[in-house]
Amino acid sequence: MSRIKSDVNRFRQIVRGRVREELRKHLGHQEMIGRQGKRVVSIPIPQLEQPHFVHDPGGQGVGQGDGEGGEGNKAGKDPGQHMLEAEFTVEELAQMLGEALELPRIVPKGREELDTQTGRYTGISQTGPESLRHFKRSYRQAMRRMISTGAYDPDNPRIDLHRADRRYRTFKPRRQPSANAVIIYVMDVSGSMGADQKELVRTESFWLDAWIQSHYQGTRTVYIVHDAAAKEVDRDTFFRIRESGGTVISSAYELTKRIIRERYSPEDWNLYLFHFSDGENYSRQDTERCLQMLAEDLLPAVNLFGYGQVESYGTSGDFFDALSKRFKEQDSVALSRIPDRDAIVGSIKLLLGKGR
After folding, report:
1. Residue 87 region, left (φ>0) first, then alpha (ψ -120 to 50), else beta?
2. Model pLDDT, residue 211
3. Strand pairing partners for 309?
4. What kind of architecture, by CATH, is found in domain 180-352?
5. Domain coordinates of the chain in residue numbers?
6. The pTM is what?
7. Residue 332 pLDDT class (50, 70, 90 cuts)
8. DSSP state at residue 79
9. Spatial separation of the C-alpha atoms in residues 215 and 217, rounded to whole Å
10. pLDDT tens-digit profile of 9-58?
């Protein structure tokens, strides 16, 4: 059984190696996300066959390879495509993402240490429940007392345990590095943003989540949609909703500013703001208002502001150009254009490449 287990483990490493090799090539494809559990993701791996036994055609024994169907069962000659589903934790995928795109590690800001409930029963107290009594420490204390008072007899080494001798284990909390993060996603859901554009956002946000969450003890996510007005929604609604109104981007930035002020103080949270839009805005005046809010309110509060312009047919939004002209040299700003799936890899590298 140990030999079989060793072979299975070796095969699993081969699967993981194949995923790591193929990750960059397929990063922008939605099927690479696979089925998500709570912390595990199943990814389909094409063209990789799991080892199995088949009968040798010559009747001499067994061999490994593709079997052939008999004449009576009308089986086809051509081999099918073998598909496996490899399971990875989000942390493993984040590690492979970092290796594939050569991303710098994020250095969290804010509090370096917080009191947490993690720790061990390493402390000693004179009081406590009997279930936590430290017998060795208790009898050692009794022996020390008896020796100091001359009550201990080496020829009759009997220890009388008094109440004052008893010692108990106590929980000692441990101070450890602890940093929390909030990822705020903002998306334009006006009529010009179709299902294809939202699928690009969904795929890219999965990898943004995976990378950022791997650097923090706790991560929360906020979803904001906007057309002419903005509102906070849940994740499912974020990727499904579609409105038919115009676009007033400043409404989303106003809501974002209020959420940060009321719920997530920059002194206690590492804030990440990602905005996806086709770049069409109601007016130049509103675009100027957005630039002012970013400069005065949002950029000073966040670790990183990332803007991805998900271009769609028939639109030629200039919001990207306005951001680039104003904030191109700002270290906390990352801008990308995402015309199609092939651009997702480059976009992720641009948005996460600053190590913030």
Report:
1. beta
2. 92
3. 277, 337
4. 3-Layer(aba) Sandwich (3.40)
5. 2-54+81-101, 115-175, 180-352
6. 0.67
7. very high
8. P
9. 7
10. 565 555 566 666 666 666 666 555 554 555 555 555 544 444 555 555 55
